[in-house]
Each structure stands twice: as structure tokens, then as C-alpha cells.
């Protein structure tokens, strides 16, 4: 047991996150008591990264480990690289020297930043992404920590009624740009502008929706009719013509997650395409039947093949797919096979995840220390998969990290033929406002002058969301910080 003490530091969370990369929770203790015998003591002297470097050096010495993401515990290394780019041309060097990143991680981070800037640049001032959440799935996966409920049609209808209302009012709010408290003299230049001394966030008169993303949950849990109504409301509320995507207009991408292959039918896909959706995701996570059974998917590998067949036959322009490295019981060969099959099925965009053991998941109850096991195997899986994807012409285009991942690795999105997911990039970049509707949606209002975000959260419990729908809407009107 190692005992740590942080002198003059109240909140030690970020330091503890780094300690957890080296040690399991049972192997260390944070002590406040000055009488206890301490192994490592740190005092804040103006730079939190200094303390992290000391922790890294101390724990490398006692454990022999050299974690490749260095002292970074945040989830957005590419965003950090973007910030560093404003100060220096040698981003790679700073990541290695100041943040202790291994060459392979620093190189990947810089490569992705350069590719993103080259492909889509930075978001335009006043541009906006819209997220709409559908918190339902056919079953709950073993590792799930999202808002996912298994309910009947009546509950889904009740939810949709509330969601339609939120979409309608928020659409009106954006179109009119004149929420409560508006005065004509205010000139709004960016989404979420708040004039000095005013308590109300003003949505601009001229906004541009860059991407729309339906996530969840699994949006295709809805029937074809429900999807049709929902997408019709969305188009009307936000003024989206059916042929808007990919045309000359600002809307670059319209995505609907169809994650669970067993929810995908031809009539649903046709509805999506009729409304201008140009991207869906089919996320089997593995193509090994035994694993699908273990993670609680209740669908077959055949369902995965069928879902791809339907999407291809209907002419979906881009198919995203997620795979997870480190699922229970899987070998390197299993992961290789899943990746090979997904590439053969014709996915355009593949995100490699590492299994994260989240607090709210069944996996946490199943095996609390799962993420500390088989670390080398997970690393091997990702290394192997990166090489296989590059070999087939896929390019890494976005990256993020999660806490409590097995092997302290990262999630990387790869695309073919430059079919990047703009939404995925924007959400990690945090340089654009996101209007998020539905249970669990977290809107983010971006203030360009200060380069910061304010979050406005909807409740994640769908029943409470229905009950308090007017409050959810009002939170957006006022910014959720003060009411007027
Ligand atoms: S498909 Fe996604 S949201 Fe649904 S239960 Fe599985 S992990 Fe959760």
C-alpha cells in the first residue's frame, strides 16, 4: 500500500486519475492525516502539471511502468495539441517533453490534428451542431453506461411527444433568435452570445447548422413511422430541406445511429434516406457470436451481415462501425477476425474502442478490476488493428480517451476516402455550440471570445424528462444558469 499526501490541495481527483493508471485502488491511499507515514508528498507550487510529472516519475520508479499517454488523463489529447499549435510549431516535441507522451502517441495525436485541419478546418463562427437522443435499446449491454432503457411502445410514444415539443420550441427559438429578454439592439455574432449584463443567452438570427446527429440509445429502436414523424418535425423545426446534406449549404452531415443490427430494416433505412440522412452506424462491436451472447446483445452475427446488406442495397452513402478491443474472453485472433469481416462488409468509417469499465455498467458489478487485466493483449490488439486498417487505406481522423479503459489506451476513428465524421471531430474539439435535445442531452454553448463552453444539461432519466419538459426547454432559453 502506497500512501500519498497533497499539501494545500483540496481537490485531488486529477492526480488520483494518474495514480490509477499505475496502481489499482487497493494499492494506494490518499492521506489527509499528517501523523500517518507517507510514501509520496506533493505541494502545489503554481503548476499542476509539475505535480503530475513528479507522480509519473515516482511511480515509474516503484512500478517499472511507463504509461504511453504520459501525464495526460483528460479525454481530448487532440484538443490539447490544437491549443499547443497556437504557441509552437513543435507540438510533437512538447507532447513528449512536457507531457511525457511516448513517440507513438505524440505522433498519432499530431497526425490526427493535421488531418482534421486539412479536411474540415475549424468550425465557422456561428455554426452549430444538433444532437437528438433516443434513450431506448432492445436490451442493455454488459458494459453500457449510457441512457438506455428497455420499454414498450406506449412509453416510447410518451417520450416522443415530449421530444417533438422540445424540437419544435428550440427550432422556433433558433429561427426567431428572440428568446425572452431580447432587445433589438443586441447584435449576436455567435451561437449562444450573451450580451454584457444580460441574463439570457441569445441565439443568433443567422445560425448555420453544420451537422445533425441522432444518438442514444439506439434511434432505430423506433418504428419506421415514428422515425418518419421525428425526422419530419426536425426538418421543419430547423429548416432543413430534404436535399440539404452535402449540397452547397452549410449542413455537412446528417447521421442516425442504427447501432444495434437487429433494429435495422429496409423500411426504416428508406425513411432515413428520404429525409436526407447520409450516414448511419452499425455497431456490432464484435462478429463473434459467443461474445455477443456474453455482452447481452441478443442478436446474431447473421443480423450484422443482414444489416450491412440492407444499408448497401438501399444506398446509404457512409456506414460507421464501432468495434471494441478487450471484450470478455476475446483473443487477438478473435479481434482480428471481427475487424477483417467488418472491412469486408464495406464499412467506410471504423472506430476502435477499448473496453471501459464504467461505474453504471453491469460489467463493474461483474468484475471491478477488469480494466487492469490483460493490458498487454489490448495494446497488441490495437497495434495490430491500426496496421491492418492503414494497410487497407484507412486513415486515423479522430481520437479520444476514456477513463477506466483496459490498458489505459485510446479510442481512434479511422475513415476511408476521407469520409470523416464531422460531428465526431467537433464534439472532441469543443470549439462549436451543440444544441442537444432529448433525455441525457448536454447542450454546449461556445463563447469564442473566451474560448470556453457552458453546459446546459437535460436530465437523463426519460420519465423525469417527460415530466419536466418545459423546464428542459427553459434551461436552454436562459442558459440554465440564471432565470429571467
Ligand atoms: S447499444 Fe449502446 S446504448 Fe444501447 S445498451 Fe448497448 S451500449 Fe448501451
Structure write-up:
The protein is α/β, with parallel strands linked by helices and 484 residues long. It folds into 3 domains: 66 residues, no CATH class; 55 residues; 311 residues, pyruvate-formate lyase- activating enzyme (Alpha-Beta Horseshoe), CATH 3.80.30. Helix content is 39%, strand content 17%. It has a 9-stranded mixed sheet, with helices on both faces. Strands 2-1-3 form a 3-stranded parallel sheet, covered by helices on one side. Strand 1, helix 1 and strand 2 form a beta-alpha-beta unit. Helix 4 runs antiparallel to helix 5, helix 7 runs parallel beside helix 8 and helix 11 packs parallel to helix 13. 43% of the residues are buried. The protein binds iron/sulfur cluster.
Topology:
Layout: E1 2-7, H1 13-22, E2 28-30, E3 40-43, H2 48-63, H3 77-85, H4 91-97, H5 103-120, E4 127-134, H6 153-176, E5 208-216, H7 224-238, E6 253-257, H8 266-274, E7 279-281, H9 289-294, H10 301-314, E8 318-325, H11 332-345, E9 349-354, H12 362-366, H13 375-391, E10 395-400, E11 411-415, H14 422-429, E12 433-437, E13 442-447, E14 452-457, H15 462-467, H16 469-478
Helix pairs in contact: 1-2, 3-5, 4-5, 6-7, 6-16, 7-8, 11-13
Bound molecules: iron/sulfur cluster.
